[in-house]
């Protein structure tokens, strides 16, 4: 690959960002700019991948599913962990005599599902999934989300300081998605324990004991949702899982194994992202109280603020793809097999396509932000997420006159992760009238 990809020495700020330096993680904007200034397509030698930061090139990668496969992992360690966990989970399940019916004709279990499946499998799955995410269903969810948000805020009583994620946005997003997954908020802790185990697979290579523990979580999770699916099959249900179980197009249905993996995807992808977006929007408002006043006075501007938050402060920095053939990207020849990091965080601030890119402009309509992806894998839950984050912010602003950061901005720590950008803890002081 040498010589085919820009391989200049990386600037200091970028180097610090790649080594997950806590100082840069809290505000990686300069690193994004430096990275994009080198070239829209750059080699990340330490992570053995090419990173795409230009908006035009990011769109090209996301839209070309034939050249850029989604069926791969963030790194080789994650891939190893995933394969091992699934192998061990299948063995446990077979021993228990439980869900051997998950194995398909080729003996394969736990198939890739969106967003990690490629066409033609992805095309079939997406056609079956899409109706459950119709925009009118997302709009109909608004009343329920308002009620849940108010209930959580009522429960805070007179408290004047909270940790905004664990005490507000997490319970709101998780509580909502659990009702949609035919479950109850009281099961949140147990389910999130399992989900936390799955998330641990996406890091460094795990030990045998850790792999066994996560395989056990996999089987427990499956058994829990197999019961839910059986209940829906017997009694029907109008929730999102009910829609997915009933989905049928030309005799095609999602298999039970696919339903389990989709439930997992929704529990992880449909909660963490919306909660992080809410918390980062609140963090921005603590630094710009005049904007909070404007949004409180004119709630119709909240939708624009949510879009700008996603563009500037979204929860996802990198998506991953793998080149299926040699391809020219932004004038750089990328060999087949190359791992490609699609940098949504940097693309959102590309001055080539976005005038005054670092400023929040709630009236901005162009270009559309890319935080929900683009093309065939465009986020199925985008409309729902927009409603969730807008309502979460609206209910806070209606109740509190001021949202303040009780610690210096520089003290807010972010998880040292290359693909997701989320505060570890975000204390917020709530000031009433
Ligand atoms: C602010 C919140 C959210 C953000 C920023 C976000 C972002 C994304 C992105 C970037 C993708 C494309 C991934 C790729 O191309 O590799 C995606 C896919 C997806 N998202 Fe979201 N998401 C959010 C919330 C949600 C919610 C609330 C749900 C559902 C409850 C959801 C369900 C999905 C599904 C099912 C896919 C797979 C689509 C496919 O591959 O066809 N997301 N999301």
From TrEMBL:
Domain of life: Bacteria
Pfam families: p450
SUPFAM superfamilies for the chain: Cytochrome P450
Keyword tRNA-binding: no
Region (Disordered): 101-122
Keyword Oxidoreductase carried by entry: yes
Keywords: Heme, Iron, Metal-binding, Monooxygenase, Oxidoreductase
Family per record: Belongs to the cytochrome P450 family.
Designated name of the protein: Cytochrome P450
Taxonomic source organism: Pseudonocardia ailaonensis
